[in-house]
Write a structure and sequence with these properties.
The protein is of the alpha/beta class and 143 residues long. It folds into two domains: 33 residues; 95 residues, Rhodanese-like domain (Oxidized Rhodanese, domain 1, 3-Layer(aba) Sandwich), CATH 3.40.250.10. It is built from six helices and five strands, in the order ααβαβαββαβα. Strands 1-5-4-2-3 form a five-stranded parallel beta sheet. The termini are far apart.
């Protein structure tokens, strides 16, 4: 395909070209935000290492109902409806904190909030509790 054909295609399919351009811009912005963020994403295996070797605090931000149906052992439940971070979490500022939700997307906002409030090591569980289950790691019920 030569340049003339490419320009003709772009002229005939402006909407497709604009959509492609928008997607590329969104990917670039997302990548820049992720690289500049102090919040790191971790896999279930890395979260397990943080939990076992660095005494990490797990924060489950799903609903109370979802939390009761199954959560990571010793996780603290901070449902998404809470606008403020509970004062009880302040004792965990110096320890690693791993935040998770159902799929790992909504937890990023809470991670950023914790980081801004002085929590030293904040991690987002990539893929959330679904990734945890897919990795065949255990969930605890009713605690």
């Amino acid at each position: 395909m030569d340049t003339h054909q490419l320009i003709e295609f772009a002229g005939n399919h402006r909407l497709l070209v604009m959509a492609l351009f928008a997607i590329v811009v969104m990917l670039i912005v997302s990548e820049i935000q992720q690289r500049l963020s102090r919040v790191k994403e971790v896999s279930p295996a890395e979260a397990t290492r943080l939990l076992n070797h660095e005494n990490a605090t797990m924060i489950d931000m799903r609903t109370d109902k979802d939390y009761r149906e199954g959560h990571i052992a010793n996780a603290v439940n901070v449902p998404t409806g809470n606008a403020d971070i509970p004062a009880s979490l302040s004792k965990h500022r110096e320890r690693p904190v791993v935040v998770y939700c159902q799929r790992g997307q909504r937890s990023t906002a809470l991670c950023n909030k914790l980081s801004k409030q002085g929590f030293e090591s904040v991690y987002n569980l990539k893929g959330g509790v679904l990734a945890w289950q897919k990795a065949e790691l255990p969930l605890t019920k009713n605690s």
